[in-house]
Amino acid sequence: MLVAVYPAVPPDQLRDEEEKSRLRELDWLLRSLQASFAAVRVGLEECAALLAPREPGSTLVISTHRSDVLKGFVTRVGTRVVRADMQLRLTGVAPTRGGPWYRLTLANADPPPSVVLTELVRVVEGINQSLDVVDVSTWTGDPNNASFIAGQLRLLQDTIRDAVRELKGSGTKRSWHEDAIDPKLFDPPLPKNLSFHLSLSEAALRVELRTLVAVASQELALGFRDRIAVAIGAARKPDHDEAEETFRYRGEDVRVREKVAVESQDPSLMATMTKLVALEHTVAQAAQCLATVMGQEY
């Protein structure tokens, strides 16, 4: 369909009118974006409230499916796990006296010990940084400067996206063998051959336990029959994905003998991730609209 202006307008005048119309639309959009920033601030404050360190915290059940290898619970308050009581059944760990399992309990000390969830710390930092970006966009900077607001929207989107990645467990994080927990946080202290690791995965708390064997001692323990069995493939192989790998753990080369991993969904983390994803989408739409009116690529 062809649209024409009648009577005909000279090309120079038409370009001037188009530019005036674009500037009026840009001015309207910049004023509208202030309301969008206010809505984003409310959403970010709700996310911050969900992750705030408030008692009694979130108590999550830790249990393996269809087995009693690992049973128990952990309690998260803010970015820390402050209580944990689990029962573990792995052949590589001797049972606690008086029971058929090994019991893992955070020590009862003053001040009480806790395990910091590094990814969740970065999520909280990302939310706080996003709030700072919104405040700068609203109060400190020039809200009528399109280039400034476009840059703030890109920064805000990147910061929220990074926080979502941390909640999903796909952000920057250290592996279990690089992030060894202090054994004395537990009562009794963790055995030397037991690794305990906490992380986030898809807004769930992931608990990983591994029994370890030093590479040097494992090789010395292999007798003639064991070497023949390994050579011909008759030896039983560990049924986990790290059986063939060697890790550097606490200054020693080790291999993973047994591994158990359990994920427990945290309602507060799930709600936070849902809100952050929605906020990221809102900011992306605003940035795309502004780029279109400014005549830029997005």
Which quaternary structure do these chains form? single chain
User: Total strand count, please?
Assistant: 9
Mean pLDDT rating: 87
The helix tally amounts to: 6
Unreliable residue runs = 220-224
Percent in helix: 40-55%
SS strand fraction: 15-25%
Largest sheet: 5 strands, antiparallel
- SSE string, helices as H and strands as E: HEEEEEHHEEHHEEH
The best one-word shape is elongated
Radius of gyration, CA atoms, in whole angstroms: 28 Å
Structural class: alpha+beta
Span of the ends, CA to CA:
28 Å
List strands and helices in order, with pairings.
Layout: H1 11-50, E1 58-63, E2 70-77, E3 80-88, E4 102-105, E5 115-116, H2 118-140, H3 146-168, E6 194-201, E7 204-214, H4 215-221, H5 224-232, E8 247-249, E9 252-265, H6 267-294
Antiparallel strand pairs: 1-2, 2-3, 3-4, 3-5, 6-7, 7-9, 8-9
Helix pairs in contact: 1-2, 1-6, 2-3, 3-6
Characterization of this structure:
With 298 residues, the chain is α+β, with helices and mostly antiparallel strands. Helices cover 44% and strands 22% of the residues. The chain has six helices and nine strands, in the order αβββββααββααββα. β6 and β7 (204-214) form a beta hairpin. α1 (11-50) crosses α2 (118-140), α2 (118-140) runs antiparallel to α3 (146-168) and α3 (146-168) runs antiparallel to α6 (267-294). The longest helix has 40 residues, at 11-50. The radius of gyration is 28 Å and the shape is elongated. The model is unreliable at 220-224 (pLDDT under 50).
